[in-house]
From TrEMBL:
PROSITE patterns according to UniProt: DENN
UniProt source species: Urocynchramus pylzowi
SMART domains: DENN, uDENN
The protein's name: DEN5B protein
This protein's UniProt keywords: Guanine-nucleotide releasing factor
Pfam families: DENN, uDENN
Length: 261
């Protein structure tokens, strides 16, 4: 388990994640930092869900800044896939049994009752809350389907967010589709890693993803730096008043700290 979150139900806890594979194995100008990428791809750790939970894919990005000031950009698509290991499913049910036993005992203690006299001494309010607790904190291996989070990540020298987002979504669709794509998945990964060049400054580049073409554009030497993030999201996240205040602080050359979960 990642962090001290044992008080939460097992499906609300986070677990330690790890890098399953990365390609290529190493690049001279950009050595792979497994710990950093693992932490940034899954900052909250590995998580589990059931068929009753929301499992929509989520996309986020990160920046690795090195000592020399060079930057590497990561774009991550997190999704959930079904757990096929019987051992993991059994372990999850065991965690729930242990968790519910602890919660059951705490309800007992708060009601000043013993296990033998629970039925006679627990009042209606506690009984109702206990029933709700057990319904919410339940996982039945014979009834529920267990899912675990997984992510695919692209690490790039420039922040081509839209292009990376489109490629990752197309790759995810190819992985989960019942109809396989025209070529093996490895072909598309090899193509974007080795055959798609960076567009020259001031030029745009069109390349093919898995299903549809993708376009990315690189600013010229006299243009503003590449900012491929939609401005609408900034307004949605900060709000108009906060954004005006941040912009004012920028113009006044004040120090700005943005804090987020």
């Amino acid at each position: 388990v990642a962090g001290e979150n044992f008080d939460q139900s097992p499906l609300r806890r986070t677990f330690k994640s790890k890098v399953l594979a990365h390609y290529p194995q190493n690049i001279e100008w950009n050595p792979f930092d497994q710990d950093a990428v693992n932490m940034l791809c899954m900052p909250k750790g590995l998580s589990f869900r059931t068929q009753a939970d929301n499992r929509d894919p989520q996309l986020h990005s990160f920046i690795i800044t090195r000592e020399d000031g060079s930057r590497t950009y990561g774009f991550v698509l997190t999704f959930y896939e079904e757990v096929t290991s019987k051992q993991i499913c059994t372990a999850m049910q065991t965690l729930y049994q242990m968790h519910n036993a602890e919660q059951y005992g705490s309800v007992c203690a708060s009601s000043s009752c013993s296990m033998d006299s629970l039925a006679s001494s627990i009042d209606e309010g506690d009984a109702t809350s206990l029933a709700k607790l057990q319904r919410y904190n339940s996982y039945d291996i014979s009834r529920d389907t267990l899912y675990v989070s997984k992510c695919i990540c692209l690490i790039t020298p420039l922040p081509f967010m839209q292009a990376c987002k489109k490629f990752l979504i197309q790759l995810y669709k190819a992985v989960t589709s019942q109809q396989p794509p025209p070529l093996p998945l490895e072909s598309y990964i090899h193509n974007i890693l080795y055959e798609v060049p960076l567009p020259p400054p001031g030029r745009s580049l069109k390349f093919y993803g898995v299903y549809e073409p993708i376009i990315c554009q690189r600013p010229g030497p006299n243009e503003l730096p590449l900012s491929d993030y939609p401005l609408r999201e900034v307004f949605e996240l900060l709000g108009l008043e906060n954004l005006v205040q941040v912009f004012t602080c920028v113009l006044l050359e004040m120090q700005i700290l943005l804090y987020s979960q």
